[in-house]
Structures are given as structure tokens and as C-alpha cells.
Amino acid sequence: MTTPTLPERTGGQILVDALRIHGTDTAYCVPGESFLAVIDALYHARDAIRLIVCRQEGGAAHMAEAHGKLTGEPGICFVTRGPGSTNASIAVHTARQDSTPLIVFIGQVGRDALGREAWQEIDYRHMFGHIAKWVDQVDDARRLPEYISRAFHVATSGRPGPVVLALPEDMLTDLVTVPDAPRYRRSGAAPTQEAMDGLAAELQRADRPLVVLGGGGWTREASADITAFAAHFDLPVACAFRRQDLIDNLDDRYIGEAGLGMDPRIAQRVRDADLVIAVGARLGETTTQGYALLDVPHPKQRLVHVHADPGELGHVYHADVPVNASMPAFARAARLLKPAGPARWSDWTRAARADQLDHIEPPPGMPGDVDLGRVMVHLRDTLPADTIVSNGAGNYTLWVQRFWRYRGMRSQLAPTSGTMGYGLPAAIAAKLVHPGRTALCFAGDGCFLMNGQELATAVQYELNVIVIVVNNAMYGSIRMHQERHHPGNVWGTALRNPDFAALARSYGAHGETVTRTDDFPAALERARAAGKPALIELQVSPEALSPKLTVSMLRG
């Protein structure tokens, strides 16, 4: 039997062939001359891999990161060397803190010029060494199948995260002969019987248990399994910062978000709990109110901590029952646990749920002619249940996180890293992955202008996202801290903004401005019916810093 002769291929072709083998159907980029050989190979693979050309590498990488969140498969992004890589680095950091599978390919200078500080040269191992899960450079085209296979495995296994691979320009044009690697298979730890017995024992001794869901690596099946586990034991379930879609918010056991701006009643319940079951959540600064809700290193609450990364267990908190497991594996095992009898804490769960239902009703009398609380209630009462909501960072997000009701995996795209400019690129990725669903982006005025140019990308690819720009003419969260620590000394936080609606129209999108709450419903209907990307600017009072705080309150 003769062995078939392998054809010669360029490095760029080998790379694109590998992406196809590993299931990639979409790649995001800003083109650069350093990886023209890859772009040429993508041209020949255009029926299999969509190439979404963006306006800035930060936007492209955010789209790829959101793609990874939505699909559970690595988002793929190509950027050029130097400035292209530095622009993309913000999304690498987001993927790291959000535990999102992401692979960023960076064009690199030719191998003959490496180490000479050639034009736009950067040593990416040093640049990304702390924030990427793995970073390397492919110097031999014959090793591309190996490197790309490893990239997919590293990005998805254990705690998911970002991988960065640098691609020397001349390597991509080399003609070599090499076999392809097979499609990757993700791996994850499963909980031991000892760990599950430990969880069962903790539940038997508890009177005030509380589940906190968070982290990455979740699937729809895992979400359903953990919801069933909570139902079997009648457990109250809080979600960590910007992970509110891990359980249907209409579920009678969902009690709200443990994150920035959390309901003080949730914070008190964490303090009062005698058992905290943290599933996937790192129990980071935002979820623990600066590590104050649980004592470091050994909380007074009994702690069951489930995480895919063994290095996270014991990193900050000593758990009474540490469980190293992937979310799907743990959730499946938890669903099979049987309660020993009726839950002793049902009143505790019902009270927490009642607090949540009270919390999502907007308070009256907020300043200004546009009441964001009422806007949010109209949106949640009007838009489809499967709407995907995205946002970046800023005080405007407090209204979104408090008043929207997320109906399940994956309907929330929001960076736990607190990245501004994330919302619009994420909404574009959502519309690409789920074209039949509504993609709703919230952005503050400062937040929108960090990646607002990607509205041109939405128009180019006919992705009918809806963008709501909350314009209070300032960097609102910084102004809030400024008023707290330096009252009356307003400096460096005011913004003079463009006409956002006119800006949207200049891109070819639908755009309009709302200055009164009562005018919003009609504006929303026009945006939904526009047949193209749409932007609604809400002109809100700078007096309203959050759903429960005004400038006047801080000044006394």
C-alpha cells in the first residue's frame, strides 16, 4: 500500500486548513500586510469561514471574545504586529478575567529581522506572558498543525482562556509538506465521589445555604442541571458579577446578582449564610465587595468551592470542600444528588426571592426627563425573551444589571473585567452567531465612543443590532467616585459629545434622540422596524449617578 503524497502548502494555507478542521466558521480581523498569506488562504476558504473585517483591532478582538462566550468554541481574531497587537490586548485581558476561549493570531516581522527592533516589532511572549493563558511564536510552518491544535486545546480545557500566537510574515509564505492534526477535543476534570459526598454532608448540616454561580465553561446543559439541583434542594441562587444568565431570572430560586451595585439585602444574605456553594465563581473582588463578605483566608461560612482550575482553589479562600471540576461535569453530578428530606430553609429562599422581585421595580422620583428605570422596564416587557443584551462599563450598566431579566444561557454579554467599549462589538458578534435573535447593546456616551466606529461594521454586514447610548455628558462612574472623595471638584470627567443619532445616520444606520421617557416606546418600535442597525440616544440627567444615588445625595 502506497502512502499518498502530501501537497506543498504555504504556512498561511496550512493555518486556515487547520482552522477548518477545528470547526472555525467565523474569523474577525483588521487586515495587515504581515499576514497577507493568511488572508489569501481565507479567500479560498470563503465558503467555509466568514471573514468579518472590522475598523479597529480592539473591536475585532472584542467580537472574537464575545463569539467565544456565545459558542463555547474559541473566538478567532487576526491582527497585525505592533499597534494592531496592542489594540487587541484589551480583549485578551477581558478573555482572561472572563474565562473565555479566544485565539488571537498576530502577524510578526520576518524571522531574519527578529530581535533588531524592526518596524513594529514586539516580543509577544513578554507582552502577553501575564495575561494570556498561553503565548508563543510559530517559527516553522511545518509545526503549524501542532501549534494550532494546542491552541484550541489550551483555550477550551480546564478554565477557558485566551491564547496568543505570533506568526512571522515569511513563515506564512514558506512552502512545506506536513500532515494536518485531527480536530481538538476539550478536556475537563470531573468531581470525585468524595467531593460530592462532602457537598451532600454540608447540605445536611446547613440552615441557611446560598449558591453563587459564576465563571466560564458553562453550557446550556450545565445551566439546566444546576437549575435542577437548586430546585431539588430549594436553594437560593445568586449570580456573580455579570453572570446573571446562568439561570433563568424568572426562576423562583433566583435572588439576584452579587456584583457591583448589588442589593444590600443580597450582601447581608451572604454574610448570614452558614453555607456558600460557589460554582465556577472565583469569588473575586466585585462578588465579595472587596473580599469583605467572606473572611480571608477562611470564611466564617462553610464553603464548597467548585472551579475548573485547581490553582484557583485555595488561591484566596480556604474551602471546606474544594471541588476541581468542569461546570458540565459538576452540574451533572449535582443534579443526581437527592435531598434527605424537605428543605429546612424554604422560608429563607422565599424571602430572598421576594427581595429580588422588589429590587427590580424602579424607584420613583429619579431626576431628569428620561427615567432609565422605566426605560428598562419597557424593554424587558417588550423585547423577546431570547434577546441578547450586551454592555461595556460605566454607571449606566447598573440600570441594566438591576432591571433586565436574563432568560438563560447565553443572553448576557458583559465583561467582568470592566472593559469600556465592549457592548457594540459584542452585539455584532451576537447577531452573527444568532441572526434570528434581537441583539441589544447598551453603552454610555464615553463607552460608546471607544468602539463606536464598529457601527460601520454592523452596517457593512447588515447586522441589525439596536444600540442604546446613555448620554449624561460625563464619565459617570468616575464622577461618582470624584463626588465621594473630592466633592464639588469636578475636573476631568465632563464630556462634550457629538450628536449620536446624526453620527449613526452618517454610518448608514437608523438614528434618533429621546429626551423624554414617554417618547421612548415609539422610538424603540421605529428602531426595531428600521431594517438596519439602529441607535437611540437617551439624553439623561448627570444628576442621576445610579438607580439609587444622585449627585445631590453625595453632596448632602
How would you characterize the overall build of this protein?
This protein is an alpha/beta fold. Helix content is 37%, strand content 18%. The protein has 20 helices and 22 strands. The protein has a six-stranded parallel β-sheet with strand order 3-2-4-5-7-6, sandwiched between helices. Helix 8 links the parallel strand 9 and strand 10. Helix 3 packs across helix 14. The protein is globular. The model has no long low-confidence stretch (mean pLDDT 95).
Task: Describe the structure in brief.
With 556 residues, the protein is α/β, with parallel strands linked by helices.
Question: Features of this protein?
Answer:
single chain, 556 residues, alpha/beta, 6-stranded parallel beta sheet, 20 helices, globular
Q: Strand content of the residues, in percent?
A: 15-25%
Strand order of the largest sheet: 3-2-4-5-7-6
Count of alpha/pi helices? 20
Radius of gyration, taken over Cα atoms and rounded to an integer in Å: 24 Å
Largest sheet: 6 strands, parallel
Distance between the termini: 88 Å
The overall pLDDT average reads 95
Q: What best-fitting shape do the alpha-carbon axes yield? A: globular
* Number of beta strands: 22
Report the uncertain regions.
Answer: none
Give the fraction of residues assigned to helices. 25-40%
Structural class: alpha/beta
